[in-house]
Amino acid sequence: MKPAPVKSNTSVDVLEKIDIRVGTIESVENVPRSSKLMRLRVDFGDMQRTILAGIKRERDNPGEIVGKQALFVVNLEPRRMAGEVSEGMLFDIGYPDDIVPVLAVPETPVPNGARMG
Question: Structure pTM?
Answer without folding.
Answer: 0.92
